[in-house]
Write a structure and sequence with these properties.
single chain, 632 residues, alpha+beta, nine-stranded mixed β-sheet, six-stranded mixed β-sheet, 16 helices, 28% helix, elongated, binds adenosine-5'-triphosphate, binds magnesium ion
Length: 632
């Protein structure tokens, strides 16, 4: 392919777009890759499309490698399947909804679990048809509350979404690992740094879910990692539970007067002033921080819950929500607390909570509890630990309140914030927090959608079985922007060679027939060898402007046809290294061709070099083997 800058549909801008905050957004707009059509909605220009197509091709190759098959759904879909899965409601204002002329409800799909489930249901009826993985690369629509950062969070964006279908959990595990491996190969091949983060703690016995995050300061996701290789979303971090403490020497619990101590900090001060300890000062971690919330299940059922964390920690909203999902959480009001006369707001303590509460009643038939709310505490509240807590009496706290001696809990909850330095759950060292951009997500859906939409097949014994599913997404347009975040400098984009819209940018830097002829000859020579050439032939542009554009646009190589031509040399520039060398005009095509071939091969082979060489069958065999070991 040979395109000339004088006719190619591209206009570079000197100024950053007014609404752009992040580099990828600024550069992609300034270099003429994309153009804003509406907030969070972008037009792909020829340059942008070239990169997109190359990314898509690598995705197709990697999907093909694990035996996934491509289909293409419409983006415009009827409401009914989404009603059956309850997502018509669940998605709320994030869904773009519309009507047809007959008044029927439609939506622009935010993701396609329902449609894939129904498609497979249409065709398949036997276990013999499975396993199956289907995927598409397609436009998605979400009316995001805060579309920002250009392609990073769009309201229209491109996603690769794959869905696996299996008769049993073993099959799902295999499909999941194959997809995970394809992602590792994909992100390694395109050269995007990634961290695989556990997205679920497994605490609820849930199925596996992992996110691929591109570590990046402007990322909206926070995750934690350890030196030893642990990485997880904050929601998925489980606390390392300390050993129980021997409390035989701990003093008796004692109610004390603690005026003007509405905060943990004030309580620490009051405690040190009035009731100093002999061994050390009181500190926030001695205090029990309490909160009462109301959890509303999707069914509408409400439950009041009392929660406790050590006083030196905060309640982390996201961890709390994840711990109690799918319930929605809000703070309890005075009204909610009226049913519990022993509870004194601001001075809540565990003595009147939990299974030992004198107020607690348990219905012998249903097991339902009343009189005192369910009480869940941080895992660090282990037997023998002593706390200062509210005394359920205004201006009073209890000291030396020992878990297991003076109070009990109904259960534990992972709702305290995770801090730098906390131990990783797998013992791989202290955790540090970092920020990232979610570029991919793999998720064992299980039978949720198959159940909702009735996808069943007959098993070996002729019995009907609900199919189990996985869903696997890559934010393709987001990945493109993430690549620009990773590969740019203050002058512009620096594409990985195999993803650049053109292999080489040829600049005509000077006037005269001799230069013109030399440039024409070399661009046609390169084109004839199958090299993609962008030729800056613009007669009225200064060499300075052409150089600026070349750096902004970011092709891996540039050939400068300038004064040297009279001596038979041209200049070869490498965008990544900044290296500039003179090459003989006669040999320039050979040299450029070889460099491009080597560079593209180097990047394309990155996954193999990194050791990701297993086939889909080998991955399946490995998953089977681990299962056999685990099952004895
Ligand atoms: P986020 O938390 O960033 O909103 P998500 O959890 O909603 O992402 P999924 O529903 O798992 O994302 O979608 C699969 C992939 O699609 C994500 O991993 C991400 O790369 C991409 N993606 C999701 N929302 C957007 C968006 N608004 N713009 C661009 N890409 C997106
Ligand atoms: Mg989202």
């Amino acid at each position: 392919m040979l395109k000339t800058m004088s006719s190619y549909f591209v206009r570079t801008l000197r100024e950053d777009p007014a609404d752009a905050e992040v580099e990828s957004h600024k550069l992609l707009v300034r270099a003429g890759y994309i153009r804003r059509a509406a907030p969070g909605i972008y037009t792909w220009l020829p340059l942008g499309l070239q990169v997109l197509r190359k990314l898509e091709r690598i995705i197709h190759e990697e999907m093909d490698r694990i035996g996934a098959q491509v289909v293409q759904f419409p983006a415009l879909l009827p409401k009914e399947p989404y009603e059956k899965s309850n997502r018509w409601q669940e998605y709320g204002p994030n869904l773009f909804r519309l009507h047809d002329r007959k008044g029927g409800d439609y939506l622009l799909a935010p993701t396609h679990e329902e449609m894939f489930t129904l498609l497979v249901k249409d065709f398949y009826s036997s276990y013999r048809d499975l396993p199956l993985t289907l995927y598409q690369i397609q436009t998605k629509y979400r009316d995001e509350a805060r579309p920002r950062a250009g392609l990073l969070r769009g309201r229209e964006f491109i996603m690769k979404d794959a869905y696996s279908f299996d008769i049993d959990d073993d099959g799902l595990d295999i499909a999941y690992q194959q997809e995970r491996y394809a992602y590792q190969r994909f992100f390694t091949r395109i050269g995007l740094d990634y961290v695989i983060c556990s997205a679920t703690s497994g605490a609820m016995g849930g199925s596996q879910s992992e996110e691929f995050l591109f570590p990046c300061a402007i990322g909206e996701d926070t995750f934690v990692r350890s030196q030893g290789g642990f990485a997880a979303n904050v929601e998925a971090v489980t606390t390392v539970v300390p050993e129980p403490v021997d409390a035989s020497d701990t003093a008796e619990a004692e109610v004390r007067f603690t005026p003007e101590a509405p905060t943990i900090e004030a309580l620490v001060n009051v405690s040190n002033e009035r009731y100093p300890r002999e061994d050390r000062p009181w500190q926030a971690s001695d205090m029990l921080k309490m909160v009462v919330v109301v959890a509303t299940q999707p069914t509408g059922e409400e439950e009041v819950l009392a929660l406790a964390v050590p006083g030196d920690r905060e309640f982390d909203e996201r961890r709390l929500e994840a711990a109690l999902a799918p319930a929605e959480i809000r703070m309890a009001t005075q009204e909610d607390l009226q049913q519990y006369p022993s509870i004194v707001a601001g001075y809540i303590g565990p003595q009147v909570l939990g299974p030992n509460s004198p107020d607690r009643k348990v219905d012998p038939e249903t097991g339902e509890i009343s009189g005192s709310p369910r009480f869940l505490a941080d895992p660090r509240v282990v037997d023998g630990t002593a706390w200062v807590a509210g005394a359920n009496k205004a201006d009073h706290h209890v000291y030396h309140l020992v878990k297991g001696r003076d109070f009990e809990v109904d259960g534990v909850i992972e709702a305290a914030n995770v801090r730098d330095g906390d131990p990783a759950p797998d013992g791989s060292g202290p955790l540090i927090t970092a920020r990232g951009i979610e570029v991919g997500h793999i998720f064992q859906l299980g039978r949720k959608y198959a159940e909702a939409l009735g996808l069943e097949v007959l098993d070996q014994n002729g019995r009907s079985q609900v199919v189990t599913m996985g869903s696997y997404g890559i934010g393709v347009s987001r990945v493109l922007a993430a690549l620009v975040e990773e590969y740019h400098d203050d002058k512009g984009i620096m594409w990985p060679p195999h993803l650049a819209p053109f292999d080489v940018h040829v600049l005509l830097a000077g006037k005269g027939a001799e230069l013109n002829d030399a440039a024409e000859k070399i661009v046609h020579e390169l084109d004839s060898r199958g090299i993609d050439v962008l030729y800056d032939d613009r007669p009225k542009m200064s060499a300075g402007v052409k150089f600026k554009d070349q750096e902004l646009l970011g092709m891996p190589f540039a050939l400068v046809i300038g004064r040297g031509v009279k001596d038979g040399v041209v200049e070869l520039r490498e965008r990544h290294s900044g290296q500039v060398i003179d090459v003989e005009l006669d040999k320039a095509a050979d040299i450029v061709e070889e460099k491009i071939r080597q560079a593209c091969a180097h990047w394309n082979e990155a996954a193999d070099r990194a050791g990701f060489t297993k086939t889909a069958a080998e991955i399946a065999a490995e998953v089977q083997a681990t299962k056999e070991v685990n099952n004895g």
